[in-house]
Amino acid sequence: MVRRGIFLVDQKYLLKGEVNMSEINLNGDLNNVLQMPAIVTICMIIGQLIKTSTKNPVVITKIPMILALIGGGIGILYFVFLFLTLDQAESLNPISFLLSGIISGLSSVGVHQTAKQRNEAKSLPYDKEIE
Within a domain: residue 80? Predict the structure, then answer.
């Protein structure tokens, strides 16, 4: 098997110049690349729902931790789905799915804060000092 981008391809097809799509094996890297934007989006939506549905300041301050746990849970669910559906599932690492889910959950908080601070900076007048 030879690594070709994000795919593992059998050497005999590379020598012939043809690649049979049934011989291409998905690598765990591709699965992580596909799962991370989805988890970030799901966690952003859940975070907004939590923030708008409660006025409790203790819950609002715990939103990043809640989203990290939700992201990790979604990552593990995605691992279980791939483990049950792929034939080369024994090569998948559940820890990487858990960690990428946690990182995706936390990065949804970062994306939200970046957008929020950018919008606040646009609304400031240019002649006013930032404290």
Answer: yes
Residue-number span of the structural domain to which 90 is assigned = 27-123
Phi, psi dihedral angles at 4 (to 5 degrees): -125, 95
- Which tokens sit at 51? 């923030």
List the pLDDT tens digit at each of the 131 positions of the chain: 444 444 444 444 444 444 444 444 444 455 556 778 889 999 999 999 999 999 899 999 999 999 999 999 999 998 888 888 876 667 778 888 899 899 999 999 999 889 888 888 777 666 555 55
Give the Cα separation of 124 and 131 in Å (integer).
Answer: 12
For residue 99, give the nearest of 10, 14, 35, 18 by alpha carbon: 35
Looking at the whole model, is its pTM more than 0.70? no
> Residue 93 corresponds to which tokens in the numbers above?
């690492």
Axis-axis angle for helices 28-53, 94-123 (nearest 10): 50
Of the candidates 47, 51, 106, 119, the residue with the CA atom closest to the CA atom of residue 75: 106
Structural domain count, the chain: 1
